[in-house]
Design brief:
Layout: H1 6-14, H2 16-19, H3 28-37, H4 53-66, H5 86-98, H6 104-113, H7 124-133, E1 160-173, E2 176-187, E3 193-199, H8 204-218, E4 223-226, H9 235-244, E5 247-250, H10 259-274, H11 285-298, H12 313-319, H13 334-337, E6 340-345, E7 351-354, E8 357-360, E9 369-375, E10 380-385, E11 391-394, E12 396-397, H14 400-404, H15 426-435
Parallel strand pairs: 1-4, 4-5
Antiparallel strand pairs: 1-2, 2-3, 6-9, 7-8, 8-12, 9-10, 10-11
Helix pairs in contact: 3-4, 5-6
């Protein structure tokens, strides 16, 4: 005995109250259909729980014509056929085959941008059916991303920024191919990218560099929410945020707030930027960043966002522009706010070292511990200061040749020469034991 098709069996069970009756009185069919449509069903292969009256009525007449076999779903006669113009079909298939990672949205946007089709002339379903018929419906190599689960949303742009790092492509760096890391800062309310950059690492210094550019372009956030990793807990980053009046908030381990929005941004970034990127044109990290910044400003910030009610990130951000905190008087001294302080012991030749180079400081500091003030982004030494932050002078690169001809300070005639030690020492004690006290005979 042939097994009854599961869908036909389900439909048959729905029709039970109709099939069980020998005949129907006038108006009884309509009333029964209404009652059946008001029930909830566990529909195979569907998340829906309700059926329409017309759907149930169609099943009823099909059963009357051919019994339960007539309730088996029939494949569409036009399945695999597309109503699109042949030229458009070829363009869709060519776009997908040229870049298998292109999504349906990406294909439609690509064909609209090169003039193949008019804006909104192609439906997503039409593209999907064509790709499915040719076995090209899956995005090759795409990663499975969790859905966005938004716990809350900032009321105004500039209230909350989120920071995160994503592993990027390999690019030429320092004579070889090295992985780049995408460091991004996103505004919560508008989804605007305050700044994003590919960096050679994911250190606190990389994050500080992106933050510096972000506040220059988009002002100061009230809160900056970041991961709880070691790089984010660096004292230098904490100090920068304190100077700028930004409240640094660390996510709880394994439950980072706002992660959904950043993951959605990374998903969009992979789909629209990385999948379209021509790696052969990249000469270095600068080339990669130049294309990143162009895409963010020209494409991403101008795309309508469903989570913003159809507004673009730039439109939503500008809506609250008057509320965003500006740098104000801090702008002139912004570089200084990002300086690092490094403890150093001054050598006897009045030099200190930084990143393999030596710098001269005032000679009076020889032998003392000082704080070296450096601009880590420009890799420059600015000067030295004491533990209280008071300036102790400049720090200049050591010039060994110039020091040959430099005038040195020497004690003047009659100027007392200070002892290098205080009180007795081992040499003086030995001298007195050997020669005796002054006035004693040996």
């Amino acid at each position: 005995m042939n097994e009854i098709h599961s869908t036909a069996l389900f439909r048959y069970s729905v029709l039970g109250p109709l099939i069980s009756r020998g005949s129907l009185q006038r108006g009884e069919l309509k009333a029964t259909l209404q009652a059946l449509a008001a029930r909830d069903y566990d529909i195979p292969g569907s998340a829906n729980t309700r059926l329409g009256e017309k759907t149930i009525e169609g099943w009823y007449y099909a059963w009357r014509r051919g019994g339960i076999e007539a309730l088996v779903p029939k494949p569409r006669s036009d399945r695999g056929l597309s109503k699109l113009d042949p030229e458009v079909q070829e363009a869709i298939l060519a776009a997908k085959r040229a870049n298998p990672r292109r999504s349906i949205r990406g294909i439609r946007r690509f064909l609209e941008s090169n003039g193949t089709v008019a804006k909104d002339a192609l439906s997503r379903s039409a593209i999907h059916r064509l790709l499915q018929a040719h076995g090209l419906s899956r995005i090759a190599g795409s990663a499975s991303e969790p859905e966005e689960h938004r716990a809350y949303e900032a009321e105004h742009a500039g209230d909350i920024w989120y920071g995160d790092v994503m592993h990027g492509p390999r690019v030429p760096m320092k004579g070889g191919q090295r992985k780049a890391y995408l460091v991004s800062l996103m505004d919560d309310a508008s989804r605007l990218i305050a700044h994003s950059a590919f960096c050679p690492g994911e250190t606190a210094l990389d994050i500080e560099g992106v933050l510096k550019q972000a506040v220059l372009k988009r002002g100061l956030p009230v809160k900056l929410v970041i991961d709880n990793g070691a790089a984010y807990r660096a004292k230098t980053l904490q100090a920068v945020c304190a100077r700028l009046g930004i409240h640094l908030v660390y996510c709880r381990p394994y439950a980072p707030e706002g992660k959904g929005k950043l993951e959605r941004w990374h998903r969009t970034f992979r789909d629209q930027f990385l999948s379209e990127l021509d790696h052969l044109r990249l000469q270095d990290l600068g080339d990669l960043n130049a294309r990143l910044w162009a895409w963010i400003e020209q494409v991403y910030h101008h795309q309508p966002h469903a989570g913003l009610g159809g507004k673009t990130p730039l439109q939503r951000y500008r809506q609250d522009l008057a509320r965003v905190r500006t740098l104000g008087s801090q702008a002139a001294g912004l570089d200084a706010l990002f300086y690092h302080r490094i403890e150093r012991k001054v050598r006897k030749d009045a030099t200190v070292s930084y990143r393999g180079a030596r710098f001269e400081v005032p000679y009076a500091l020889s032998g003392h511990s000082v704080r070296l003030v450096v601009d880590p982004h420009a890799q420059q030494v600015i000067g030295v200061e004491d533990a209280q932050g008071a300036s102790l002078g400049a720090a200049t690169p050591l010039d060994l040749q110039a020091n040959v001809h430099r005038h040195r300070r020497k004690p003047q005639p009659g100027e007392p020469v200070q002892s290098t030690t205080d009180g007795d020492n081992e040499v003086e004690l030995a001298y007195r034991r050997y020669h005796g006290q002054p006035g004693e005979q040996r």
